[in-house]
Amino acid sequence: MIKYIKILESDFTVGKAAIIIGFFSFATKLAALFRERLFASYFGQGPLLDSYFSAFRIPDFVTNLFVLSTLSVAFLPVFAREKKASREEAEKFANTCLDFGLLFVGAVCLILFVFSKPMTQYLVPGFSGQQLQDTLKLTRLFLLTPIIFTASTIFGGVLNAKKKFIITSLAPLLYNLGIIFGIVFLFGRFGILGLGYGVILGALAQLFVQVYTVWSGGFSLKWSFNSKLPAFREMLQMYLPRIFTFDLANVTLLLTTIFASLVVPGSITAVNQSFNLQSVPIGIFAFALSSAVFPVFSEHFANKNEIGYANSLKKSVRQILFLMVPATVFLVIFRAYVVRLVLGAGNFSWEDTVTTFTFLGIFAFSLVSQSLTTLLSRAFFARHNTKTPVKANLVSVAINIVLSYVLFQRLGTEGLVLGFVFSSIFNASYLALSLRDILRKQAGVQVVYELEKFVLVGLNKIIMSSVIGGAVSYGLIYALEPFVYTNTFFGILVQAALAGAGGVAVYLFASFKLGLVEAQAVYIAVSKLLPNKKPSF
Q: pTM for the whole thing?
């Protein structure tokens, strides 16, 4: 197994890494969709799942604030440089970061555990009785996850810096499998705490597989905190400002938990489920590409190769647009089908379906901005620039809070989702304009002009192709309706699959004819899969 993985990870390229990450991201998202279907089938949208999702808010906020969006991006660039200079120094740096993270995040979680009761009461002011107690129990249990994810982040960073993406991509899949195990096997015995035990089991599984891989590779990680290491101090200079970059998604879910606990039961669950559904294409495409190109950005910046950096950036932006613009169009068109196919089982009612696909349709308009933010943030971090993403995020969070409050008063829970969409678009725009100004100074006006031309010309063609493909899918939905029985899962699946496949094929055909290099890459990939038959458009 290890030998096969080493063969797959040899001869690193961004495209190969993106495919590896994308494959496991797809598998992870499939597991996540199955997880959501189990939740919907077993529990529907009601008080129990409201408690479950609400219990994640404080631990997830800690994880994103101090680990995923901070420690992970501050650790990798410095470790990659240290590894290139000296393996021994890289190990010292990794050990110090691991010890620091466990001590710091552990202390934060201990404090939150002590004050968990009043914080939970403020978080879900509309909960009372058993529902409030269930939320409190799970919140305390889930405070273990930031500590586990801290260790996972360091071990995963070591593997990513060595351009070993398979295990780090496999880890989230194990996490979801742990949650599924909790639903199927532990809930019946332990009640709602069984769902929590599944979460902890999944977190430990993803940590173990990364620890084992790092150790089996001969890398020595041990307890030896040394705060005087220059590399560690450099990491702190990037880490501390990043604490102020609150993740917009988590802020939205936090606000949703507070406000929606006061309205109809199930609203918290509906927003969480629609958010999880819309995150599937982002996780498969945008996250995979951004993770794969991050070390490339870092290397270009370390080598002072601004032209190479700009070229990698423009190709990555175009690839994201090529994938996420049509994803937006198709998700809006097929939002009801997605919800019915993924969640429409057991105790998940038609009313639950309508509520969820309404939120999903609104979320869809932020797919492009969320994806670009993921990429552009890493482009800044590779330059050791944390100030700009901090400014962008702080302003975006402020906009999100104000808009969410105002729109909630007028539109209800839908207003909370709209607030996220608008603030997400602002965040991506701020980052893009700021990076353009930096590259004009560092790479030259001509390089930036070529970058913008490449992106904007491509975007126009992508939008045109997406609209054409979407129109074909929309027409096929109605053309196929007389021939399928849409009151069954199979009928809905056939109608959606045929209409979707037709629309995607037309999108690829149109984008190929318009000369998009991304479509030409798809053509080449298909040609390799069919060596005796050349696909023709």
A: 0.82
